[in-house]
Amino acid sequence: MCAKATMDEFEALLKESFEIDTPNEGSVVKGTVIAIEAGQAIIDVGYKMEGRVDLKEFADPGEAPEIAVGDAVEVFLDRVENARGEAVISRDKARREEAWDRLEKAYADEARVEGAIFGRVKGGFTVDLGGAVAFLPGSQVDVRPVRDAGPLMGLKQPFQILKMDRRRGNIVVSRRAILEESRAEQRAEVIGKLAEGDAVDGVVKNITEYGAFVDLGGVDGLLHVTDMAWRRVNHPSEILSIGETIKVQVIKINKETHRISLGMKQLQDDPWNSVEAKFPLESVHTGRVTNITDYGAFVELEPGVEGLVHVSEMSWTKKNVHPGKIVSTSQEVEVMVLEIDTAKRRVSLGLKQTMRNPWELFSESHPEGTEVEGEVKNITEFGLFIGLPGDIDGMVHLSDLSWDQRGEEAIQEYRKGDVVKAVVTEVDVDKERISLSIKALGGDKFAEATGSVKRGSIITVGVTAIEDGGIEVEYEGMKSFIRRSDLSRDRAEQRPERFQVGDKVDVRVTNIDSKTRRLGLSIKAREIAEEREAVEQFGSSDSGASLGDILGAALKGDE
């Protein structure tokens, strides 16, 4: 009975000894380096157990291992005994377990952790956080995109843990968050020393299409392209280069966003202060075309002072033409100052005002009555447009095409491109209008033919045609028509057929119509006038003499 009790106690003590002395697999244990051989460290973890660990597990990324005999280390016990009777241990796993504990605490406290970038992976980099490997996204490396991450590799530096999952072994860190935080502190300190209006030195860090970023000593300010110079700057690279030190003025500071607006031209004299003195109204200056738009062209009078030549002020003759067809960029042109608005910083210029008005020149060299020659540029329903010297046009109205034909008929004889002659009849400089006449080339035949003829005159005409309603006659080349009722005072003699083509007939002029260019003629009126004249000369109706006697005496007197 006593022996049995003693045996039970021994078993219990032995079991308790095993439970105490043998560590649990999967836990971190302390050990001592007892030897280093074949690239491995032999470690005594106690409990009469030894294990081997590769020396590289004792080295940080990119560094040589620091381990010596006698060093006390912590290792992770995978298994108590392998096939060779050795413990399976790992320094990496021990460091990882230790690191996770430390990182979880730092993540909870939102504290920074130290690590080193040691590899590149898709979308970013790998970071060693003292035993645990974290992912650093490419967007979290720096505040601006990093083209070459070589200088950052292997460098111990602080990181901020953004996300971690121990079960999955995922850790995401950010270097950018650290930089932004320190940058914000630095910006606040620098901005606190700046005031709007201060002139400071800065270094050009970056150039964009809209401006340049200037480092003011830890804080960047934006120098917009419109604030670089008083003159037009197409691209900042025209006057700035990266790394250049420049003097700028602080224009505006946004205390909330810590944004700083800078200017260079504010440190120079404003050329607009002397515009009115340098460029008085109606003065002519030479400038350079800097920009062309649909509505005109901008001309630089001097650096910082530009004026607009509106499309309506570009040419006397070229209407509704794009400015780019009249001037070209960088062309030197002469312009006249038309208007100045210093408040709006605008100057209105004129290009055509530096040249003589072509209608004035034409009026001086081609007074009314001058004969001109030109090409038919256009044919419209109301007349012809003829090209004239000075790149201007004159118009021949339908009514000025022909003396004998209707305008609608006469215009059918002309084609675009025909070279014709005409006479200047009117020049209206204000309305920029020139009136021409083709029919006036040979003079006014009607006026010449009827110049000595008056109403009531007796003239001799030739019969040119016989018609039912009367006869057509001609006088000095001018055609007229005598109606049947005007062929005789005697109704029986009002017969057109009693006349023949070629007959010469004396007629009385009853009307002169210069508009229709027709003479009103009548044989009847001539006969009545002769009868009245005979009565007045040889007697009266109550003298007892018969009309036959009077006419007989008159005819006898004529003989």
Automatic annotation (TrEMBL):
Keywords in alphabetical order: Repeat, Ribonucleoprotein, Ribosomal protein, RNA-binding
Coiled-coil residues: none
Top-level taxon of the source organism: Bacteria
Alphabetized SUPFAM superfamilies for the sequence: Nucleic acid-binding proteins
Any GO BP: translation
PANTHER family hit by this protein: 30S RIBOSOMAL PROTEIN S1, SMALL RIBOSOMAL SUBUNIT PROTEIN BS1C
A GO MF label: structural constituent of ribosome
Domain S1 motif: 26-92, 110-176, 197-265, 282-352, 369-439, 456-524
An example Gene Ontology CC term for this record: cytosolic small ribosomal subunit
Family of this protein: Belongs to the bacterial ribosomal protein bS1 family.
Protein name: 30S ribosomal protein S1
InterPro entries per UniProt: NA-bd_OB-fold, Ribos_protein_bS1-like, Ribosomal_bS1, Ribosomal_protein_S1-like, S1_domain
Organism: Aliiruegeria lutimaris
Function comment: Binds mRNA; thus facilitating recognition of the initiation point. It is needed to translate mRNA with a short Shine-Dalgarno (SD) purine-rich sequence.
